Amino acid sequence: MSRPEQEAPPEIFYNDSEASKYTGSSRIQRIQAEMTLRALDLLSLPPSSYILDIGCGSGLSGEILSEEGHYWVGMDISPSMLQIALERDVDGDILLSDMGQGVPFRPGSFDAAISISAIQWLCNVDSSEHDPKYRLSKFFQTLFSSLKRGGRAVFQFYPANDTQRDTILHAAKVAGFTGGLVIDDPESKKNKKYYMVLVAGGSPGDI
Amino acid sequence: MKLLTLNFVQCATRDCAGRQDAFPLAPQNVQLAAQETDLDPDFMANILAKIDWPGLETSLNQLGRPLTFTKEQVEQDQNLLKELHSILIETTIQEGELVCPRCSHIYHVKDGIASFLLPPHLV
Ligand SMILES: [Zn+2]
C-alpha cells in the first residue's frame, strides 16, 4: 500500500478532490473519531479545556473535541482541507500554518495538544529548504512553549519505520518533553496504532 | 479568526519567534463578523486565567472598540462575563491583515482563516 506522504507534500496531496474524498469517507470518519477519543483518553482533561489540534484537516477530530465539551484551535497546511472545515461549520478556530515552521502561539496558551495522523508528514523532504531535523526541532520547541506547564500532547501517527519513529521521539525529548509511546493492538498488522504521549515539563505521571 | 485567538497568536518569523514584543499582532483593514455561540462559564473561567489582558486592551483599541471594564470586574459580574464572551468568542475577523508590531510582517486573513505560512527566508 502506498503512503500519501510519499506521493506529494500535504498541501498538494490534499487538493480539493482528495480533501473531499478523505472527509466524505465514512470509514475514515469512523477511524478518525475512534483515534481522537483514544487520544482524549490519554490526555485525561477536565471539560472546557483549550486544545491545539495540529494538522486539524477538515475538522474531523475537532468535531469530536467539541462534542466532548472542549474548545480548540486547529492548524493545517492544506487550504482545501480548511475550506471543507469552513463548509462543515466547525466550532473551532482554524489557521493555515505549516507545523514545520513552528507553532505561532505565545507561551502557556493551551491546556493540551492533539494530532491525528499528521506528524509523519514532518519527516518529508519536499524541497531543498525542507530539512526534516530542523523542522522537527522547530516544531517541538515551539509546541513545548505554547503548552501550559505539565500540559500534555498526544500524537497518533503512522511511522514509516523504526528510524522515523525514533527520530520523532528524540526531537520531542530534546525540546524538553517527557513521555513515550503507547501502542494499541501491537500484534495486529491492520489495527496497530501508535500514540506518542508527551508532557511539557512537570512530572511525567503514569505514562 | 476569533478575537480570542488573536490574543494567543504571535509573530512566527525567525527573528520574532518567542519575543514578547512581537505581540499582539495589529489588525488592519479588517472586516469583523458576529456569530452567536453558547456561553460556557467554565471555559470563560479557564480562558480568563490565560488571557493577556494588556494585549486584549491594545487589540480592542486598535479595532476602535475599547474595553469598558477591567479583568477584576469581569471576575465578579456575570453580565460582564457575557460581554467578554461576545467579544472573544462571538466576534471574528473575516478579512484583513494582522501586522507584527516588531518586524511589520503582514499575515493575511481570508474567509476567517489567518495564514501563518512564511516565505522560506523568514523561517
Ligand atoms: Zn515579527
UniProtKB/TrEMBL annotation, chain B:
It comes from the Eukaryota. Pfam families: Trm112p (PF03966). Gene3D superfamilies: 2.20.25.10. GO terms for molecular function: protein heterodimerization activity; protein methyltransferase activity; rRNA (guanine) methyltransferase activity; tRNA (guanine(10)-N2)-methyltransferase activity. One of its GO terms (cellular component) is tRNA (m2G10) methyltransferase complex. GO terms for biological process: maturation of LSU-rRNA; maturation of SSU-rRNA; rRNA (guanine-N7)-methylation; tRNA methylation; tRNA wobble uridine modification. Belongs to the TRM112 family. This is Trm112p-domain-containing protein. It comes from Tortispora caseinolytica NRRL Y-17796.
